[in-house]
Amino acid sequence: MSARQDGLRHGLKTVMNLAARGCKVIIGDIIDDTKIRDRIIDETTNNLVEITHVDLASLKSVRAFAKNIVYTQKRLDILILMGETGGFSNLYTEDGLLKLMQVNHFGPFLMTYLLSDLLKKTPGSRVVFVSSLLSLIHKLRNAENLNAAIPHKNHLMSNIYEYGNSKLCMLMGAQIFSEKLEGVTCFCVFPGISKILINKSLASSSINTFMRFIYKIIILFGKDEWERSQTTIHCAVSKELHGKPLAIYANCYKFPIRPRPLRNKELCDKVWEQSEMLVKIGEEEKIK
């Protein structure tokens, strides 16, 4: 199952791969795009493809989506969390949460939480958290500023730091989910830089000459969406990774650098507790 917010590029290639293997796939998408579903079915000849509405920027929508999965599915073998957005720095949703944080962390966090029982009941189940290399660039100093806007004279840097915070929080959540979900294997993925997004940025008239130069350098190391999907698929289906402890993967190998905050257990625990509070996890819902 794959959930995303803006664009189905990486997600589409991931879903195509899983469907071609004969998997039943449920796509959680903000747009109920039957054309996408029909395209996947046509190209993979797999009719077991569904698409269901979910808006990661709405706690109510995430709860409705998870409730539907729990009531209609007997098992959940693979949960892939690739909701991702950017460009919404300092904007808040109706839930009172930073939109970028909610789409990239709070929404996927709540979804994993609500589906945890179904995951634990499914032998050999896996959760793949699609994070980002930008999780290394953050302003997360304590859990108290988890939902606080990051002021910066440069709007681009404000957005980068907020995005980095959100993807770092996802890694922290993944680390604790891996400890709490007995029998469930968790992975974190750095899919790589998208050539498509960099090309779109270069087409923008709002970026300065220096950033254009930086983007042109970055694009040399960028990946197309098929390439970006490969590490996600590797973590989702590789038999040799079954039961492995949590690790970050990039280019289908373990990533050599671990963000320093992940080694701070006290901070990770506080981010977890703050996330529980902000997404309104009830006492009866808490993972024991």
UniProtKB/TrEMBL annotation:
Keywords: Oxidoreductase. SUPFAM superfamilies: NAD(P)-binding Rossmann-fold domains. This is Retinol dehydrogenase 12-like. It comes from Nicrophorus vespilloides (Boreal carrion beetle).
